[in-house]
Amino acid sequence: MAYGLYSHIQSNRRRSVVLLIGLFFLVYLMTFAGALVAEVAIGGDARLDFLINAALRRTLYSLPWVTIGTIVWILIAYKFHQSMIDAITGGQEVTRQEQPRLYNLLENLCISRGITMPKLKVMESDALNAFATGLNEKQYSVTVTSGLLARLDDPEVEAVLGHELTHIRNGDVRLLVIAVIIAGVISFFAELVFRALFQGGFGWRGSRGSSSDRGKGGAGAAVLIAIVLIAIAWLLSIVIRFALSRQREFLADAGSVELTKNPDAMVSALRKIENRGELEGSTSAVMEMCVDNPRSGFADLFATHPSIDSRVEALVKFAGGHDPGPLALPELADEQESAPQADEPQPDAPKSFLPPEPPIRLGGDAPAPHVPGPWDPKR
């Protein structure tokens, strides 16, 4: 349960590769469902077995093009996904001069483990959250919210950065981005098919070939099968995305503890982030990359992250952390009011009964003749 559990990491990676292969299978399944709908729309009513065989032939013919199209989609996302995420979140890259505290914490963690330092970005938001993105070392970046920087102390911010660095080191970020991309293909295709079915509509046109070969009466069943296949593919793509991220959060928490040697900082950071991480205006894909993706009630069944309670429990059990329980944070406005302001008048310093001491000159001309002053011993 630490950064160095490479056997567990490798096992996770192998399972993730299998899941990604499954996502490609879902793309092909969606292709068959689309071909089945096309056979009904173009060819008209026919026997169910005739429509299925025709759809299989159409699917086999289109598989190379579907594969190429999916790869092109991935390449486009590979090139532009970071700029799209930044456009959604408003994250801005920062330098050491702009954020010395944050930059130094991340740099120290990277140096301690020999990790290539990712880009560092800050998102203006009162939410308490952070996420990592990228598909290779040149693209990797860690984004934190301004609210997290304001509410967490240095050890807690360091723990969050260690969590995100572990995601990068373990390959979680790359695999999650790819899974989101392919799942996006499925969602896009499913929406097109459902729009054609329920909004545009279609009529079953005249049959092709002899009626003895084609028969009739299977169109309704074929459309129903297509709808079921599309729904299954869409639901499985969501489940796969959950599997790619949910268990990895435990490993990332453990990796942060090994990097920082401070389980209590990770525990207190999670408790402060708890129920305060919702990024308004961000998509579900961005939230899946965050330290916490808060869900409650029925929605928790579809959560991409384990609950904060279960993650804290694991840190207490395996890393020796101490759980303070849910933390109530004061509002930022209250904190700002209680803090002394730079422009507020300060109490006057006590005045000395002695006149000011003249400055000491170093070098230069010979000193002027000594004039007795109040500091000279009495004669």
Please write out the topology:
Blueprint: H1 6-43, H2 48-89, E1 92-93, H3 100-113, E2 119-123, E3 130-133, E4 141-145, H4 146-151, H5 154-169, H6 172-200, H7 211-214, H8 219-245, H9 248-260, H10 263-273, H11 284-287, H12 308-319, H13 332-338
Tell me briefly what this model is:
This protein has 379 residues and is mostly helical.
Summarize the structure in words.
There is one protein chain. The chain is mainly α and 379 residues long. The protein has two domains: 159 residues, no CATH class; 149 residues, 2-Layer Sandwich (Zincin-like), CATH 3.30.2010. It is built from 13 helices and four strands. It has a four-stranded mixed beta sheet, sandwiched between helices. A hairpin with a 7-residue loop joins strand 3 and strand 4.
Please identify the oligomeric state.
Answer: single chain
Strand content: under 5%
Q: SSE string, helix = H, strand = E? A: HHEHEEEHHHHHHHHHH
Strand segment count: 4
Specify the helix fraction band: 55-70%
Could you give the order of strands across the largest sheet? 1-2-4-3
Structural class category: mainly alpha
